[in-house]
Amino acid sequence: MAEEESQFEEFEQIDFLRDRHVRFFQRTLQVLPERYASLETTRLTIIFFALSGLDVLDALDVIDRNTMIEWIYSLQVLPTEDQVNLSRCGFRGSSHIGIPYSTKGPGVLHPYDSGHVAMTYTGLCSLLILGDDLSRVNKQACLAGLRALQLEDGSFYAVPEGSENDIRFIYCAASICYMLDDWSGMDIQKAIEYIRGSLSYDNGFGQGAGRESHGGWTYCAIASLCLMGRLEEALSQRELDRIRRWCIMRQQSGFQGRPNKPVDTCYSFWVGATLELLDVFQYTNFDKNRSFILSTQDRLVGGFAKWPDSHPDPLHAYLGLCGLSLIGEPSLRKVHPALNITQRAFQHVQQLQQTWRDSTGSCSRHLWG
Amino acid sequence: QDTTFLSQEIPPVFLCFRDRKEWADLEPVPQDDGPNPVVKIAYSEKFSDVYDYFRALLKNDERSERAFALTSEAIELNAANYTVWHYRRVLLQALSKDLREEMRYITAIIEEQPKNYQVWHHRRMVVEWLNDPSEELEFIADILSQDAKNYHAWQHRQWVIQEYKLWDDELDFVENLLEEDVRNNSAWNQRHFVISHTSGFSDAMEREIQYCLYQIKKAPNNESAWNYLKGILQPLGLSAQPGLLERVLELKQTHCSPYLLAFLFDCYEDALENSKENVAEEEQQKTLKKALEICQLLAQEDTIRKEYWLFLGRSLKNKHGSSDPSDEPLADDPEPSVPVSEQQEMS
């Protein structure tokens, strides 16, 4: 009897509580308490985690799409009448600057209002996840804003006022160009040089040259190259094999971000997706990975935390789901490993881009017969 | 009249900005999330008050002492707001503020919040303006004494050292950290950083190999040490270093680990890839056999990566195997009929 009970307990411990996670993301999208103040300027990334998380759970029906879409568009930094702020366009993380709510242009001139590369990236992703056609996105302005952020060494600032610059923002830039189907937003060659320069002696990628290799930056490097379509041009087969080795050594149960550091749920995605992009994720241990991710599941409030018995947060909740999706958890949608949205949302992107190309084609036919 | 109450100490109460007469000229600007806010953070009255006035100052791009003082309040409530930090920097310059005092300020904030990007970026800006890195190494050492792997701290340290050429004592610093914790991967990375920018690895190679083997003997299951050893030898080729293979094979008897075995595999693979013209086919096949044996061993010893090690063995065999049909097949040859990923899902 006792043995049966404890086996049942074990099953309970490792089952995936889908409905709790849906409610976790629903609550995230509503109101957060003041102790989350540090997330103010990055609220758009939090929306992305919640929306993409609901998409992975196949539960987008619980939200009001149009409400979300309007709110996201209100965060677009649009060109002013005279377009003096073109190099500052993109999306804001939130309304914290105090611009009055508006979903249409022209932009309002404000001495400190500008887009943030990670917000432009997650803003576009979120719109696409919601099925929007990006028709209200000023694409040329976004791309101009993006160009203004790239440095000589190929890396990007986050904001035109200046910030730290590193490989994270190259990934954001590459994602933006990929989604807008327009690579005029960045100098690909320079970005590739920076990425190559970030390859460490131990065959992982650091945040920049000389820096310690890390699962998150390795994802940014490889996913960027994949989005650019330059993986095998930028890295030799030997280098790719070595990078595969660095990544696969990160698995201890779940995955760690750096050698000799504790495992953390989010790396099940960062490292897992990298391994998937490099075609060797199939050689990892799915059971141990799954057990670890589920050990960080919060059975009461839903979501996932970085470690067991810790508080869940939107980032780990989302990436925990993505980690499970990579190993084929039933009931979860597949995730596109480079763009980090569901395959369903990715198909929407592809269809949208086809209509853009078709309409451009038909225009030029009209002009030149 | 009873006026004794006038001499009593009244504890200071936080007065909202909207109630302070020195701020009466400014109209506070609330945050406007429209009719259906998403991920709304429920701020207290105090929080909203400070930031409503911050937004008002920002709109007018006011350059004043009161604005500067308010940025400190805003930072205390949310040190991750990069706009506040940027505005503070504008004010530091516009008002010609004392940058040494700002260094003291940012030091205190980083001590409290050492994993915040904005505070480290701010410190870097102030150091650049002062063109004075003299406090940096000691400050960063202090932060690292609380968390020896803080990525921001290491990044800042590398910037300071490279920008101001402060290489001299860094190798000693790294060695002390490795004495404290030989598994500190950040310290091993720093070691590589220092040497590659100073002496380089040609003359230092033998010394570095010795150092690695010494540390490995003390703590055999240390991936960082093995990654470092492989990393410094990799550019020349693992099989290019005379006597190394033998030393590692010796270590295998007493200080084995999956990292040691993987290193051996890589040595053999390197030998196969870079074999000279005059290396006999027989020699190649012997090396291949040793490599495949290591793969089998790894599949047993490093079980979490079992499928990967077997895959490596198959790949190596496909690449370098002879066409001799009398060759013994690998235990898991040919490829399993059910793809590995399906197997995992079924279990």
UniProtKB/TrEMBL annotation, chain A:
Top enzyme category = transferase
Please give the Pfam families that the UniProt record associates with this protein. Prenyltrans (PF00432)
**Keywords of this protein's UniProt record, alphabetized?**
Magnesium, Metal-binding, Prenyltransferase, Repeat, Transferase, Zinc
Q: What Gene3D superfamilies does UniProt report for this protein, alphabetically? A: 1.50.10.20
Entry's EC annotation:
2.5.1.59
What's in the GO CC field? CAAX-protein geranylgeranyltransferase complex
> What is this enzyme's catalytic activity, as reactions?
geranylgeranyl diphosphate + L-cysteinyl-[protein] = S-geranylgeranyl-L-cysteinyl-[protein] + diphosphate
Cofactor(s) required, per the database record? Mg(2+); Zn(2+)
- Every copy of the Prenyltransferase alpha-alpha toroid domain together lies at 16-341
Q: Name one GO molecular function term.
A: CAAX-protein geranylgeranyltransferase activity
Oligomer status and interactors: Heterodimer of FNTA and PGGT1B. PGGT1B mediates interaction with substrate peptides.
Family indicated by similarity: Belongs to the protein prenyltransferase subunit beta family.
What is the protein's given name?
Geranylgeranyl transferase type-1 subunit beta
Source organism per UniProt: Sander lucioperca (Pike-perch)
Q: Which gene encodes it?
A: pggt1b
Automatic annotation (TrEMBL), chain B:
The cofactor(s) it depends on are: Mg(2+)
Broad EC category: transferase
EC number(s) reported in the record: 2.5.1.58, 2.5.1.59
Q: Does the keyword Nucleotide-binding apply?
A: no
Query: What ranges does the record list as Acidic residues composition bias?
Result: 325-335
Alphabetized, the UniProt keywords read: Acetylation, Coiled coil, Magnesium, Prenyltransferase, Repeat, Transferase
Coiled-coil region(s) at which residues? 265-292
Reaction catalysis annotation: geranylgeranyl diphosphate + L-cysteinyl-[protein] = S-geranylgeranyl-L-cysteinyl-[protein] + diphosphate; L-cysteinyl-[protein] + (2E,6E)-farnesyl diphosphate = S-(2E,6E)-farnesyl-L-cysteinyl-[protein] + diphosphate
Summary of subunit composition and partner proteins: Heterodimer of FNTA and FNTB (farnesyltransferase). Heterodimer of FNTA and PGGT1B (geranylgeranyltransferase).
Q: What is this protein called?
A: Protein farnesyltransferase/geranylgeranyltransferase type-1 subunit alpha
Its source organism is Sander lucioperca (Pike-perch)
